[in-house]
Design brief:
Number of domains: 2
CATH superfamily of the largest domain: Tetracycline Repressor, domain 2
Mean pLDDT: 84
Number of helices: 10
CATH topology of the largest domain: Tetracycline Repressor, domain 2
Distance between the termini: 50 Å
Largest sheet: none
Order of helices and strands: HHHHHHHHHH
Radius of gyration: 19 Å
Strand content: under 5%
Helix content: over 70%
CATH class of the largest domain: Mainly Alpha
Shape: elongated
Number of strands: 0
Length: 202
Amino acid sequence: MAVRTERLQDVDAPSRPMRADALRNHQKILAAAEEIFALDGVAVPIDIVAERAGVGVGTLYRHFPTKESLYEAIVTTRIAGLLGQADEFIDDSASDPGAALAAFLREFARQASEKQDLFEALEQTGVDIKSRFSERIEELVEKIDVLRRRAAHAGAIRRDVETSDIMNLISGTCHAAGHSGVDEAGFQRLVGIVLSGLQPAK
């Protein structure tokens, strides 16, 4: 089913940097939308999002002229955050390669698990996340590949492990945990088992 673009107001997104108060409102709207869409679905009226964020509907309109633009901002923000964290691990030449890969994968898995309901809700409306954000996802995979190659070179993980293997294992774990009611401790235990499986045989 194609995404129905809900036109909120014919307002162009601001092209210049946002003021501090505008940035705070932007972030509050995104946080409220993530929470509401994940819990109640993406069909929730936009004024409910504004109310939860503590801003006026007009303020929300100025930041996100369409409901689709709000969807995209949520996903883009999440991916951008992960890209930034991956860069921190890549740029930290003093970090242990195996520990750096493990730490990033735990964070990646945590965020993916937390936002699984939201992403599934978006996909049910016709938002093809993998296609629409393919360039950013590819960039993220490339950064994970850098961390993987460093860890393999250091002997921290098996040399025959591919980045696609890691992505499939983490994604599968998040999906399974999300649909079986596993708590946070159980989820981290599952991720730990996946990470142990990447290590070279003793």
